[in-house]
Task: structure prediction
Amino acid sequence: MPEATTQTRVVTLPDGELSLSWAAATDVGRRREVNQDAVLAEYPLFIVADGMGGHIGGEIASASTVERLKAVAGKDAVSPKAIEKALARAVEDIGRHAGTTDDGTGTTVTGVYLDAALDEPTWVTLNIGDSRVYLMRDDSLMQITTDHSVVQELIASGRLSPEEAENHPYGNVITRAVGPTECVTPDYVRLDIVDGDRFVICSDGLTKELTDYGILHFLLEHADPGEAVDSMLKAAIENGGRDNISVIVLNARLSGGAGIDDDTAERPQVAAQTTPVQRPDMSAANGVDTATASDAGSSTSAD
Result:
C-alpha cells in the first residue's frame, strides 16, 4: 500500500493568508488487476477520476482526463471554462484509442479548486459521476457533490432508501461520465473559505468500504492529511477492497484577516443535497453555509 506524503502551500488572499496542506493516494484494492483510478493533487486543483470500460479502457479515460486537467492546474487561475475545455480535449484523447475503448469507456471527474481570482476568493467543487467531495466543518461531515447514478435518482424520487441503496443491483451504474464520444458539463458548487475546513475527495472504492461516519472518524483521529489518507486507505482495503481506492485530504487554515466568510448571509443560498454526518455523541448538525450550483449534461455509463 502506498504511503501518502503531506504537501503544504501558503496562499496570500485579500483578507489574510490561507495555509493549505494535502495528501493523496490511490491503490488497486484486493480484487481488481488494474488500477483505473487517477489522481491529481496540485495546487489549486485537486481531482479524483475513476475510470471504467474494458481491461485498460478506464485507465486510458481517467489518465487522459487527469493529464488534461494537470495542464489547467499549471496555469495562474482555474475556471469552469478552462476545466470544460480540458475535458473536451480529454474526450478527443479517449476517442483516439479506438482499439481499446468503446461506448462503455468513461471516467468520473470529481474535485475541488481554489478560485482566488475573485475579490472574495472561494472554493469550487466540480463533479461528473459518483466519486465524491466531502467537507468537514465544525466536526461534522457533509457530502457536497451529488452522485450521478441510477441509485441516487431512485433515492431522490423516494423509490429507494439509502439503506436499500447499499446493496442495490444497479449500485455501480452511473448516469454521467466523461467518455470517448461526448463531453458533459460538471456540476459546480461554490463554498466560502472558512478556517479549519477539511475536504475529502474520493472514488467510490472508498465509500463502498467506509461509511460517512467512518470517514469522519479518521479525519477526527488524524489532523495530518497524510496520516488521514493512509488510515482511510488501509481501512478500506481491510474492509474488502472490492474496487480501486483513491482519496485526497485537503486542510485549510485561514489567518491574518477579519474573515472571508463574514457576509455569508448576503450570498445566494442553495439547500445541501445530503444530511450532515456528525460525531455520534452530538445532537445538532452544522452544514455548509453558502453554496451556488449549476447543472447540465447527461450520459449513461456503467462503473
